[in-house]
Specification:
single chain
Length: 325
């Protein structure tokens, strides 16, 4: 999963991806009040070692009126759902606030700036963990509940975003294109999204983002989409349009390659079965020959069955065949 996390971190290290993630998938009015031209990634020098070691997390900030809004983006790509994600989020938000206090990064009113904790998850199983830490704490009577922490995180579960408008070809949303690539319906769908991305990212100032998509496609998408196929010189490609062109040529041959792989695997399994059946036939023939010799020596059917490992009915049948010759 490390390559997956690192590839996503590379993609969401570009402000265009964070902007489209918020505008396309956070359906709340305050998003329209953000000044996305001020989006800036929080430097590692501003955060503690505890947060800096969180390699799969990214922290951005953006102007919201006179204040800064901090976006804590946690990339969660693992096979199992973390039941206690809300506890992790509370810890990370607390650490970030400690850093903001140390750096004296307060609002004009002298207060701490707001933080939006987001969890971006792409697992097959739909996310079902508590999204507020209060849901993990046993309820108690007598007023103690007033001291129970309340902290929610914003969950973006890719598997539940498929039918949202940001997925459509008509809506220019880079985060939506990324999700659709990862959850493509078929090879043609993948090619269509790639072609759209090539059109969207033609500008020279988008070179870094094009390369980030190219790296993710090479290291994650294609090995996952066709793990048993040789991808040739894909690892050498640096530009998105080159990936699109080469895929356009090769995807047509994928079904044939899959069929060839299937036939080769079937032949290999057939040979293994043949060897196993041959060995079994040889063992059975040896048992029969030994049984015939023991019959000639006058041993009983039960003794022969015990000595050779044959079924008693097989020994009786061999005795009858021997007597008829």
């Amino acid at each position: 999963m490390a390559s997956h996390d690192n590839s996503y971190k590379l993609l969401f290290s570009h402000p265009e991806m964070v902007r489209d993630l918020l505008t396309g998938f956070v359906k709340q009015d305050w998003v329209s009040q953000l000044d996305f031209s001020t989006l800036e990634k929080v430097s590692g020098s501003y955060i503690s070692d505890e947060l800096r070691d969180r390699e799969d997390d990214i922290i951005w900030r953006v102007r919201w009126g006179d204040d800064w809004l901090y976006v804590y983006l946690l990339l969660e790509f693992q096979s199992s759902i973390d039941r206690y994600m809300a506890v992790r989020i509370m810890t990370y938000v607390g650490l970030l606030y400690q850093d903001l206090i140390r750096q004296r990064r307060f609002t004009p009113a002298g207060k701490l700036p707001p933080i939006l904790p987001m969890v971006l998850y792409n697992g097959e199983q739909r996310w079902n963990a508590a999204q507020n830490i209060s849901q993990l704490i046993e309820a108690v009577p007598g007023g103690l509940q007033h001291y129970c922490p309340q902290l929610s995180y914003l969950l973006l579960d890719e598997g539940e975003l498929i039918n949202q408008p940001a997925w459509s070809d008509e809506t220019r949303n880079l985060a939506g294109a990324l999700f659709r690539l990862e959850h493509n319906r078929d090879e043609q769908d993948m090619l269509n999204v790639l072609g759209t991305l090539v059109e969207w990212l033609q500008a020279p100032q988008q070179t870094g983002l094009r390369r980030a998509f190219t790296v993710w496609i090479r290291r994650v998408l294609l090995p996952h989409r066709a793990p048993e196929l040789e991808l040739g010189n894909f690892h050498k490609l640096q530009e998105l349009h080159e990936v699109h062109t080469m895929l356009s040529e090769r995807i047509k041959r994928w079904p044939e390659r899959w069929e060839e792989k299937g036939m080769a695997k079937g032949m290999e399994q057939g040979l293994i079965r043949g060897r196993q059946e041959g060995r079994q036939a040889g063992i059975q023939e040896a048992q029969h020959q030994t049984a015939l010799k023991l019959i000639a020596m006058g041993l009983s059917d039960e003794q022969i069955a015990t000595a050779t490992g044959l079924e008693l009915t097989d020994v009786i049948q061999l005795r009858e065949q021997s007597a008829s010759h």
